Every structure is written in C-alpha cells, then in structure tokens.
Amino acid sequence: xxxxxxxxxxxxxNFEAFMKAAGLPEELIQKGKDIKGTSEIVQNGKHFKLTIxxxxxxxxxxxxxxxxxxxxxxxGEKVKTVVHMEGDNKLVTTFKGIKSVTELNGDTITSTxxxxxxxxxxxxxxx
Length: 127
Hints:
Elements: E1 5-13, H1 15-22, H2 26-32, E2 38-44, E3 47-54, E4 57-64, E5 68-72, E6 78-82, E7 84-86, E8 90-95, E9 98-105, E10 108-115, E11 118-126
Antiparallel strand pairs: 1-2, 1-11, 2-3, 3-4, 5-6, 7-8, 8-9, 9-10, 10-11
Keywords: Cytoplasm, Lipid-binding, Transport
Subcellular location: Cytoplasm
Family: Belongs to the calycin superfamily. Fatty-acid binding protein (FABP) family.
C-alpha cells in the first residue's frame, strides 16, 4: 500500500491532554487545537518524506523504514528513532516514551500517539 498523497485533518481526540503531557506550552496548545493541518507524504519504496503544516508551523521529516533517522517532534525537538512497517498499512515508531502508529485505510490516515495513559488520535482524509 502506498501512503503518498496530501491529507487534511478531519477530527482529533485528546489533543490538549496529550500535548500538555508531551510538554507543549499552554499558549501553543490553545493556538493549535482548532487548526485543521495538512500532511503531505511522498513514499518511494521504503523511503518516506513528510511535510506537516499546522498553521504557520511546517515540519519536514524524512526516513527509510528500518533505519535510524532524526525526526522533529511536535515540540520542535530533534529525536533519533527507527520507523517500522507493520503489515502493509501501519507505520510504527517510539520516541521519548511516545508510541506513534500511523495507519492507512483507503483515503483515510489514522494517527494514534500514546504517552503513558494519554492517547491522542487524529483522523485525516486524502484531499
């Protein structure tokens, strides 16, 4: 399954609680909670390029499945991690105690991030 495409956030659950647990300042949480951000994914085999736009903030991440890479987190911090594919439609990684699962089903991407007992879920649709 190919993840390539542009996706826009349709809904999200637990944004504020998760971002607070992840250490994002309250001012940024309030600014970002209602933004319907977009993600653009370019997949070439096992290589992925992600461009995530939330309001004026743009994050670029690039990785190859199974290889260590440096990624920018939601808080702007750079972390080293390895992204794995589960089945043919799930990207899974863990960094700074956060487990991130991105699942593609048709034209819908569901991203679930878990930090302790706080689960943040974001659903985006291909545009």
